[in-house]
Amino acid sequence: QTIELCEANNQRPLLTMRVNCPKIDPVNFEKKISSLNQNVEKSQYNDCFFRTPDLPELTEFSYFQEGHFSIQDESAGLPCKLIDPKAGEVVLDLCAAPGGKSAYLSELNAGKAIIISIDQNFPRLNLIRKNIKRLGLKNIHLIQADGRNFAAKKADKVLVDAPCSGLGVLAKRVDLRWKRTPAQINELTKIQFELLQNAGKLVKTGGVVVYSTCTIEPDENERIVEKFLKKNKNFNIDPATRFISETFVTEEGFARTFPHKHGMDGSFAARLIKKSEILKKNIKVNP
């Protein structure tokens, strides 16, 4: 399978469009795009995603400018499906820029949840602001902060789409084949764990934390979750099969995709449930 993976990474990737379903029905979107002699193929896993070999210049493509769709790989939608945002819930997106997942979280509940998008990079927050304006999304709120030490009232759900090595997107980021080093990955794992640790503090009892990356490196995926669960006994894995196709789900209940198996970017996601708060041990003081 290693050879198949390498061959898949050497193929020109298709463009994937995520339809803004609250704005336009996927069936009507497909008709409109097809009427432009644009070759599109609907995803077999998610009705809101379509693939195409190419697109006109987006700045000149009216359907894009009018907010009918976004460019987003289908694998990037899986963590949002695992979050499963409901009306009235407060959802934190701790590493939000450039905003694709925040937007999809909003679209999944037709703008009825409260999405708080957090990123420490102000220029990248502006990218989110422009994107949500184009899509017409009103329930996304932006905060500039470092997700590792961000503090707020406990939320119903928290998404940690952690910075990673990007080894799942080598077909799109060819430069990473030469730029990534073991030392960089070691540094990234520290950041990833710190983000997940803080997410655990930010979510309510009974709430959900979803940890995700766009890498296929176990040290950045399973090992991070295992370390977190070992340190936080009050969390359990919630199997992904309740939210996405079993095609993507591992024996442990994680979501995993590979370019050569699924025709999309390599990715990982884990849905964790907070069973309780960690109680501090009572310290007896001798009189």
What name goes with the CATH superfamily of the largest domain? Vaccinia Virus protein VP39
Name the CATH class of the largest domain.
Alpha Beta
Averaged pLDDT: 91
What about the largest sheet?
Answer: 8 strands, mixed
**Overall SS class:** alpha/beta
At CATH level 3, the topology of the largest domain is Rossmann fold
What gross morphology would you assign? globular
End-to-end separation in angstroms reads 67 Å
Q: Sketch the topology as an H/E string, one letter per element.
A: HEHEEHEHEHEHEEHHEHEEHE
Cα-based radius of gyration, to the nearest Å: 19 Å
The overall number of domains is 2
Residues in helices, as a percent range: 25-40%
How much beta, percentage-wise? 15-25%
Task: Tell me the CATH architecture of the largest domain.
Answer: 3-Layer(aba) Sandwich
State the total count of DSSP E strands. Answer: 12
Low-confidence stretches: 281-287
The number of helices is: 10
What would a concise description of this structure say?
This protein has 287 residues and is of the alpha/beta class. The chain is 32% helix and 21% strand. Strands 5, 6, 7, 8, 9, 10, 11 and 12 form an 8-stranded mixed beta sheet that branches.
